[in-house]
Please model this.
Amino acid sequence: MKAVVIGAHLNREDVEPIARAIPVGDLFVSGFEVADDRPLGDRDLLLQVADLRARLLDRATFIAIRYGFAARSAEDVVAKCAGLAPRWRGLLIAHREEVEMTLKAAAAAPPSRPDRRDFASGAAYMRALHESAHAVDVDPQFRGGVERTLLPLTTQHRWIHRDDSSVELAMLVRRRDLDAVRAAGEQLRRDFATVPFLLSGPWPLEVFADDHQQ
Amino acid sequence: MTEPTQEITLLETLDHLLDRGVVIAGEATISVGDVDLLYLGLNIVLANIDALVRTTKP
Model:
């Protein structure tokens, strides 16, 4: 058996009996046991893990570990995660009552995608792709609407450029404010009927626990 | 037949599963056959936006 690692949690009871709780220092890492020969790309497995994430989040806020880490043993999990545990513990205590919400909006005017044939090297092409994604923005009036209606309901927020066709707003929100955030989303939909956007969540700590997004 | 909103919710859920959260060093890249799942995740993002545009057009 191997365990698909799902997240890091403050307490054992935040994990069990939904998933297996693997102690790592003062924390617990959740795992979902599957047969050794079951590929991680299995569609049903992906859906099962997504469902487990949602059920674990209903129980308590946790730090999401990106899909793709399957441990052969508890020792394997400890070896990979022990060094991160002190930082994770601080985040989990600080954000115990918060979850993430995401607003993904289509770019106002998507730039033309760089053509690989226009670049002498792969590195230059990658830089151009990166710059192209960062040049993307949403309609300024829509951004203003988001800043007026949604941001006052967040404790932290971050605009993220993931690709050249959309911009994403990651928000930390108190659990008690989730309904107000959804209502603000409905208001935005009425005010900006022509702007394609998706407000989704709640999600575990993903962006705000990831060093690469800092 | 699934509703467009259900499809978007599913795509968004998979996008978060595959492309969000803490990366454990050396464990993020997985493949299905010859297709890197991170690449698959990127396609989900693009498909997601494409679906958004389609479903919100008058």
User: Anything to note?
Assistant: Chain B is about 60% helix and 5% strand.
